């Protein structure tokens, strides 16, 4: 094995992504190929040799300074092989990338989040999609408002709860949920897109709503006529109850807009549009009430109108 810690034969590692783990009082590093660490952790890459630039544990990768055996024994135990130590660092360590790589990763995540959001939200009046530029501006507005709110709270001493005449702390007003502070690289684009959509819908910097789902629901005609318990009416303190109905009535109550409706033999079929939030309720109702005689099929996850 090359004594790479000596200047005369030091290996220069280029195009490197370091993974760093602090164990005890020492910091250990391994040298990996860019992008391969994430592929490894996602299960895409399974060959560790394709991830590591060199199968050594370092104290400092950039200087080519390998970790002495006594340091590894003290930190990881005397019975742990070097290969297992490398795997522990690879799986648990913090990925270190350069400024350019970090900026590129942020840029990729940002564009992916914006693209997902733009494909899922529409103008509720026209049902048309917004451009990615409009979505980006709307999220920037929310991010600016959130950061401005933090500054105001910090400046007004919001960290200390106000007290009343009796010295008891007054309850703070609830902060608005679904605040958006911007894209980060530590979360997946999909999860951040969901957070962004919730924030846009909650705060409405521009008029937005979730694009509707297009479904096909089929059910036997015999099951359609069965009566079902009336759903609980909202605000039922006045003693009023929702009117009872049939399976068909309940199915149609979930559908915002019917596209087609037909009976073919002993089976009824309806194609229509529903809000994404209503899908689970409809699916559960069919499963519980029709005993396998009704089913729902997703034809389009997000129906939008393009200009």
UniProtKB/TrEMBL annotation:
One of its GO terms (molecular function) is large ribosomal subunit rRNA binding. It is found in: Cytoplasm; Nucleus. Residues 146-181 are annotated as: Disordered. Residues 167-179 have a biased composition (Basic and acidic residues). Residues 213-301 form the Ribosome maturation protein SDO1/SBDS C-terminal domain. The keyword Repressor does not apply. GO terms for biological process: cytosolic ribosome assembly. PROSITE patterns: UPF0023. Residues 153-164 have a biased composition (Low complexity). Keywords: Cytoplasm, Nucleus, Ribosome biogenesis. Residues 112-211 form the Ribosome maturation protein SDO1/SBDS central domain. Residues 15-102 form the Ribosome maturation protein SDO1/SBDS N-terminal domain. One of its GO terms (cellular component) is cytoplasm. It comes from the Eukaryota. Belongs to the SDO1/SBDS family. Associates with the 60S ribosomal subunit. This is Ribosome maturation protein SDO1. It comes from Pseudomassariella vexata. The lineage of its organism: Eukaryota, Fungi, Dikarya, Ascomycota, Pezizomycotina.
């Amino acid at each position: 094995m090359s004594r790479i810690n000596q200047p005369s034969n030091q290996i220069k590692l280029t195009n490197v992504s370091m993974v760093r783990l602090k164990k005890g009082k020492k910091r250990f590093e391994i040298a990996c190929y860019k992008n391969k660490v994430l592929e490894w952790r996602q299960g895409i890459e399974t060959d560790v040799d394709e991830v590591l630039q060199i199968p050594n544990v370092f104290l400092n990768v950039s200087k080519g300074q390998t970790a002495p055996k006594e340091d590894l024994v003290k930190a990881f135990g005397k019975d742990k092989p070097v290969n297992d130590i490398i795997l522990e660092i690879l799986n648990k360590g913090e990925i270190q990338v350069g400024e350019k790589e970090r900026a590129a990763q942020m840029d990729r995540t940002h564009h992916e989040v914006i693209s997902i959001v733009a494909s899922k939200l529409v103008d509720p009046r026209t049902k048309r999609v917004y451009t990615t530029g409009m979505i980006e501006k709307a999220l920037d507005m929310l991010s600016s408002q959130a950061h401005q709110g933090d500054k105001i709270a910090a400046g007004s001493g919001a960290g200390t709860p106000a007290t009343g005449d009796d010295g008891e702390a007054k309850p703070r007003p609830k902060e608005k949920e679904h605040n958006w502070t911007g894209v980060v690289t530590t979360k997946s684009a999909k999860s951040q897109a969901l957070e962004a959509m919730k924030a846009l819908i909650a705060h409405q910097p521009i008029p937005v709503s979730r694009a509707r789902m297009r479904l096909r629901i089929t059910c036997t005609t015999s099951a359609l006529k069965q009566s079902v318990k009336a759903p609980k009416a909202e605000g039922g303190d006045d003693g009023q109850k929702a009117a009872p109905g049939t399976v068909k009535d309940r199915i149609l109550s979930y559908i915002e807009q019917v596209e087609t409706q037909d009976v073919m033999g002993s089976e009824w079929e309806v194609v229509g549009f529903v809000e994404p939030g209503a899908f689970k309720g409809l699916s559960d109702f069919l499963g519980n009430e029709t005993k396998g005689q009704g089913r729902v099929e997703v034809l389009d996850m997000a129906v939008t109108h393009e200009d």
